[in-house]
Amino acid sequence: MVASLHNPSWNSYPRTLTSKMSGCKVFNKLESRIASVRASEYTTDVDVKAEGKLYLGMDFGTSGARYALIDKDGNIQAEGKRDYPLHMSEEAVDWVKSWRTTLFALLEDIPVSLRAAVASISVDGTSATTLIVDSTTGEPLCRPLLYNESYPEALPLVKAIAPVNHTVCSGSSTLCKLVHWWNFFNSAKQSAVLLHQADWLLWLLHGRLGISDYNNALKVGYDPETESYPPWLLAQPYSRVLPTVLSPGSTIGSMKEVVRTHLGFPKDCVICTGTTDSIAAFIAARANQPGQSVTSLGSTLAIKLLSTQRVEDARFGVYSHRLDDKWLVGGASNTGGAVLRQIFTDEQLQKLSEQINSSEVSPLDYYPLLDIGERFPVADPEMEPRLHPRPASDVEYLHGILESIARIEAKGYSLLKELGATPVEEVFTAGGGSRNKKWIAIRERVLGLPVRRALQTEAAYGAALFAMKGADS
User: CB within 8 A of 124, min separation 6: which ones?
Assistant: First the structure.
């Protein structure tokens, strides 16, 4: 037994994955049934009996949180968002208080007339955002260690025990954060448990400490293929704080009575394990066949490919998340929309894009970066941005940048294939860049593949699909 569950009534729960439920089967089933998503808010004069059961997903991102409430056919019945209130503590943001406040604010935002129909709830959070909490009270023993924080002093210690090029061999991995806490904080280590952001938020709803999912636990060293923590990790003294790991979308238990009665949720409403924000966004796009992928064109460029083979190589920032009997292989580049916004306004991007001939190949060869350093498909912390020469025509300049980012995307998919992943056959696109039709046309030409905008890309929607999976299990 790895980390004992910290609630006596819960010690009998299986420590590893409880089933081989294929979430992909669930999503395949949904694919044929899901109607077009309604973007408008749902009115409160709804007949709950006619709607039947509803499934709630909540996404906790970097600056705010969203919720999506869907029915059995995937139609959105209500949705909303909240920015995090910036509670301060000693001149720093008290993220624990901000997240807790936002969680219950979102629950209160759900139309009262719909709450009685909510059958299940799941939450996604930012990957590798880590909380070390008291195993009795659940209160944090130190401030949260955020997803984008790196602890290089812990990296040599992690590399000394982990396999070469393992996913945890990154200064921002959950394991590096755990080692950092273990070595540099004087907390009560005998009564501690590690949780990820989504785990902790779900604990506020179900009250059973020490439960995570295999997507969130990947970066602490959990092996989803063997469904266990590896021996090299269990041999470490801090392994006692590791959480129990279940598959995403597994039923944990009922909602806490005090929460349920206060907010008006039904007695049979269950809380399900969550996932990471990027996995939830992928699931929302409904890419469910090997060879299908999602490229997210936000501030940075991130690609995720559904593969029958697991691929991991820390040299290139490539790792795989398990999706039941398949693998979600991906990496994230530092190129992307943030570079475009540094050069052009939104209005300029729109007007200049309209003048681009997307069928023509741009002769300009750039590597658009905001700062020095690249993660994927080339891992080079010393790589410098390349955005010159700049032609006199802004249309040509934008064309060259868009095409150069498309080439980086193509190189990423080529690298995944070289490493053994299922070759990409179709690309769904998400993020702000997915609205640029000329960019999509350029990418189709460069990739030599069909590229289409995902109809649904909100991570909260993907979390709701995991909630549906848990309710149906």
Answer: 57, 58, 59, 60, 198, 274, 275, 276, 277, 279, 280, 459, 460, 462, 463, 466
Report the chain's mean pLDDT, rounded to a whole number.
88
| Cis peptide leading into residue 140 (ω within 30°) | no
- For the entire predicted model, the pTM comes to 0.80
Res. 63: pLDDT tops 70: yes
Q: Is the pLDDT of residue 458 over 70?
A: yes
What the block records as the tokens of 234 is 């269990």
What the block records as the tokens of 469 is 């999976």
Tell how strand 192-196 and strand 130-134 pair up. Answer: antiparallel
State residue 295 phi and psi, 5-degree precision: -105, 120
pLDDT of residue 209: 96
Q: Give the C-alpha separation, 216 to 229, whole Å.
A: 13
Where would I find the H helices in 235-276? 257-263
**Rounded to whole angstroms, what are the CA distances from 197 to 125, 226, 280?**
6, 24, 14
SS (H, E, C) 147-178: CCCCCCCCHHHHHCCCCCCCCCCCCCCHHHHH
Is residue 77 within 8 Å of residue 468, measured between CB atoms? no
Give me the mean pLDDT over the 51-55 stretch.
86
